[in-house]
Amino acid sequence: MSADRDVPFPYMRWAKRHLTGFTPSNLGMSGIAGLTPTDVAPAGPTPYWMPEGEFGDPDLRAALAARDGVPVDHVFVSAGASLANFLVYLAEARGAHVAVETPGYEALPRCAAAVGAGVTGFRRDPDRGWRVDPASLRAAVRPNSRLIVVTDLHNPSGVRLHADDLALLVAEAERVGAAVLVDEVYRELDLTVRPTAALGHPRVIVTNSLTKAHGLGGLRIGWILATPDRIRRIAEWNDLVCPAHPVPSIAVAKAYLPQADARVAATRAAIVDRVARVDAWVRGRKDVTWTRPDGGITGFLRLPPGTDAEAFATFAFEQHGVRVVPGSFFQAPDHVRISFGLIPANLDKALGVLGTALDAWAARRPAS
Ligand SMILES: Cc1ncc(COP(=O)(O)O)c(C=O)c1O
Predict the structure, then answer these.
(1) Per-residue pLDDT tens for 314-346?
(2) 217: Cβ below 6 Å to ligand 1?
(3) Is the pLDDT of residue 222 over 90?
(4) 3-state secondary structure of 123
(5) Among the three residues 230, 257, 284, which one is the final residue of a domain in this structure?
(6) Is 92 in the pocket of ligand 1 (CB under 6 A)?
(7) Which domain CATH number covers 318?
(8) Are residues 151 and 283 in the same domain?
(9) pTM
(10) Which domain holds residue 265?
(11) CA 251, CA 7: separation in Å to the nearest integer?
């Protein structure tokens, strides 16, 4: 494994080198295959420039607000969820402290260092279906914590954020005067349709984008949902780091949004079958376990005790041609993340090859 840990975001460096397309044995891709101009295109010529309000294109802002059922002044349009998360860290936690779920998406702890904040992890517990571990949350949250951060669906496990866990996070945030950041890039792929957490409590800030659930990552269109005072501060930081948004993308996003519900519903319907296929494969094996995802496009496999997942992932790719993502990128070195965005025939084949790789790996390990 050639992963470089001394860069701001090691997983993304690795992903750009290794997760390059929906090839038949790639169980690493974390989204759905992208839409094309045949699927969605603006009605007229694509503009290159248009005036943009303080909080992002007004029509796009209104469309996003309507979709999520929040007032317009609770929305900030951002250039993707990555920038949205960074803006929230800048506006809320600069020089303070952030408590972040672990295992989790590596950008979330790494953003803390980038804004000069301390960071502590709190556990998502694999033995309780990746529920938040209350004792570890209590220990992770400090008097100067300004953000408590989770993903919903959980990346990497694909498990829904339990309503009681969200309530617990909000209670901890109340205790120290923090906000709860819920990254919802996978929420719309939950097989049970649920509203955004932004509706629940003024301390909740939500980030989202058209990347994962909508297959439009190339547009770089995302958004932040929060109370108007927070949105104002976020907009001020955005002036510094991203003073104008990608205008052609805004036009495509506006053309897309009227069909978003139908598209996402079709993707959810396809996911039902894929989760069932992977679940049957996992249950048919004695060496790996997982918590069945609630939807999304990824799940987190626990490998046999003592397995170095980085070494296994390298072996699986180099010897068998099947790609999985080492759990070390999610702070869980005995897991691998697998995705089920492949078409079913390729998914079945790739799982077969992964099984062969696991068998071969077990056969080559010296008996202990
Ligand atoms: C949890 C999470 N948030 C944000 C992102 C990045 O989204 P975007 O492409 O909108 O920047 C990803 C991408 O993998 C992700 O998994």
Answers:
(1) 999 999 999 999 999 999 999 999 999 888 999
(2) yes
(3) yes
(4) strand
(5) 257
(6) no
(7) 3.90.1150.10
(8) no
(9) 0.96
(10) 10-33+260-364
(11) 34
